[in-house]
Design brief:
mainly alpha, 5 helices, 4 strands, two-stranded antiparallel ribbon, 66% helix
């Protein structure tokens, strides 16, 4: 019985060490996913509300916490410490709840993205030539996502182009150079001049919405994957803590039995060393002296 308990505890301990090693790898992975999503959001941050950055930041923080929490699992399993293993399991449970909350938040925010982006893109478009940060944001989105305007290049017809601004003239509409999809280079008097021959046909609104949707979905999927692995770790942790308690109790019982056997064996082999019970003599009052 004792040997089976030791073998079972050893198996659970090694499985917990393996799960902890997986935690380290998945923590690094989720930090990478979180930073990637944060970088994607940052590229279009001018058109996003600050609340959309919260799930990405939260996932990064959870990944960092998981790296440190893994130490409790490793040390607790190696030292067979019930306290450390229980701390590891409890922290995993708390982080699991937080991750599920982050995943739910990320998916819930997807319903707000369309309306928010539509409003922000249309509101900022008229100030393209007035504010350098808006100009840089639109140029980045149009050149990277291969799009032009909010719905199409026709949206630039509602923007007043200041005098002296060069751009691409299409049907009495001046669009930014970042809308150019294909250029043709001609040489005039030794100078190479680029002429745009094709504009991006699609608007930027559906492209940005798709980008944010995919990022939120990836964020939620990463959080749920980590949560699944955490459930396995929590089960192994509590099982190991229970096995450690049973093993320590069994060891103490066996140690007590061995001590009792040694004492009994010693006293049976050395009867002379046993303490004799004191004999008390009580005089008989009826006795007479000669």
């Amino acid at each position: 019985m004792a040997n089976n308990l030791e073998v079972g505890m050893r198996c659970i301990k090694y499985m917990l060490l393996c799960v902890t090693a997986i935690f380290v790898l998945t923590s690094a992975l989720i930090i990478s996913v979180g930073t990637t999503i944060y970088a994607i959001y940052h590229d279009v941050s001018y058109f996003l509300d600050d609340q959309l950055f919260s799930p990405a930041t939260f996932i990064i923080v959870i990944g960092v916490i998981m790296l440190f929490v893994s130490l409790f699992g490793c040390i607790g399993a190696l030292k067979e410490s019930t306290c450390l293993v229980n701390i590891f399991a409890v922290i995993l449970s708390v982080v699991l709840v937080l991750e599920v909350a982050a995943a739910i938040t990320a998916y819930a925010m997807r319903s707000q993205v369309s309306e928010m982006l539509d409003d922000n893109l249309r509101t900022t478009l008229p100030y393209y030539y007035e504010k350098p940060e808006i100009e840089a944001a639109y140029d980045f989105v149009q050149s990277r996502l291969n799009c032009c305007g909010v719905d199409s290049y026709l949206d630039w017809g509602e923007v007043d182009t200041p005098a002296g601004i060069t751009g691409i003239s299409v049907a009495n509409i001046t669009v930014p150079n970042s809308c150019c999809a294909q250029s043709r280079y001609t040489e005039i008097e030794g100078l190479e001049i680029a002429e745009c021959t094709k504009l991006y046909a699609n608007g930027c609104l559906p492209r940005v919405i798709y980008l944010v949707y995919q990022s939120a979905g990836l964020l939620g999927a990463g959080a749920m994957t980590i949560a699944f692995i955490q459930i396995i770790g929590i089960v192994f942790s509590f099982s190991l803590a229970s096995s450690i308690r049973k093993a320590k109790t069994e060891r103490e019982r066996r140690r007590w039995e061995i001590q009792e056997r040694m004492i009994n064996a010693y006293t049976s082999l050395n009867p002379d060393n046993e303490k004799a019970a004191p004999v008390v003599y009580v005089p008989f009052h009826g006795q007479t002296t000669a």
